[in-house]
Write a structure and sequence with these properties.
Blueprint lengths: L3 E7 L2 E6 L2 E7 L4 E6 L2 E8 L4 E6 H9 L9 H5 L16 H14 L18 H14 L7 E7 L4 E7 L9 E5 L5 E5 L2 H26 L5 E11 L6 E12 L12 H6 L3 E2 L21
Parallel strand pairs: 8-11
Antiparallel strand pairs: 1-2, 2-3, 3-4, 4-5, 5-6, 7-8, 9-10, 11-12, 12-13
């Protein structure tokens, strides 16, 4: 079911293949590599053997830092910082309507679970595997979701189930701004803390699982459950290389999608379901071993 493979093209150059696309990794020696694919361009560095590593998204960084030089945007710190002059700096202006709309869209992105759908009871009959997989592929091709993700799926008639591997957005893609109400009643834009970013990421990726599972159950009415196993890219503490890491695997049974479940926190909702995921005290989601088809009853 899981199809991800790395092919060495030349020294220091690897082609990474999956059902959802391809990416290239350049370098990797001495803890430094560059990866480019359909999710963006990333610079990865580490100190092998120490557990010290980091990952920087370059395409977003270059746009934020250099955009103002080419007339297609200003770095966030330039718009937020008061101008320096001989006079006293003025207080930052209240966000305008366009900024408020952008942040509203960012909040909706994080809370994608609110856009999951209610599903009807399962229909009798045997699940048609080819038809089920085609229906999900057609839905994905419409591209109407408010957030980027990719899916590999396999329908299993004997278990009346759909197994989905979900390629998650990265934490670097999470919105970094928030609205804060000041003591005088005004509203300002501020930068989120690392803790807030991790909490937003947890809400987003678990909610994305709800979103995908609910649509899959609606598209495949004979399916009784959808198993979503979600992965992201992380640096290996031993080798420093980027690798796919599963951070949750959850069995979404049809009956779990009761009315108004979208209003629950995704973390609380998913804790009530059969699943494998663990959030550390730091807010980081720990690597897990995903469910296989043989594990599903």
């Amino acid at each position: 079911m899981r199809f991800r493979k790395s092919v060495r093209i030349a020294k220091g150059v690897k082609l990474n293949l999956s059902k959802t696309g391809a990416s290239f990794t350049l370098g990797g020696g001495k803890g430094l590599s560059f990866n480019v694919g359909n999710r963006g361009a990333f610079l990865n560095w580490s100190i092998p053997g120490t557990g010290v590593y980091d990952r920087v998204r370059l395409d977003t960084l270059l746009k934020d830092k250099l955009g103002g030089l080419f007339g297609f945007g200003k770095p966030a710190q330039e718009t937020d910082a008061p101008k320096r002059s001989g006079k006293a700096a003025k207080a930052p202006a209240r966000p305008d309507d366009a900024q408020m709309e952008e942040i509203a869209q960012e909040i909706a992105l994080i809370n994608i679970h609110q856009q999951a759908i209610d599903v009807a009871s399962a229909q009798p009959g045997t699940l048609d595997e080819a038809q089920a997989e085609a229906a999900i592929a057609d839905w994905l091709s419409e591209g109407e979701a408010p957030i980027g993700f990719a899916v590999d799926c396999e329908a299993i008639a004997g278990k009346a189930a759909v197994m989905i591997d979900l390629d998650l957005p990265e934490i670097e893609d999470m919105p970094r701004r928030k609205l804060v109400q000041m003591a005088d009643g005004s509203v300002k834009i501020k930068k989120k803390s690392q803790k807030e970013l991790r909490e937003d990421y947890r809400t987003c990726v678990l909610g994305l699982g709800e979103y995908v599972a609910s649509h899959a159950l609606a598209l495949v009415p004979q399916a009784k459950k959808v198993v979503v196993s979600a992965y992201t890219q992380r640096r290996s503490e031993k080798t420093g290389e980027a690798m796919d890491v599963f951070i949750y695997s959850i069995v979404f049974a049809r009956e779990a999608f009761a009315a108004d479940y979208q209003q629950r926190d995704p973390y609380d909702f998913c804790q009530d379901l059969p699943g494998r995921f663990y959030v550390l005290a730091s807010g980081v989601m720990k690597e897990i071993a995903p469910f296989e088809a043989a594990d599903i009853e």
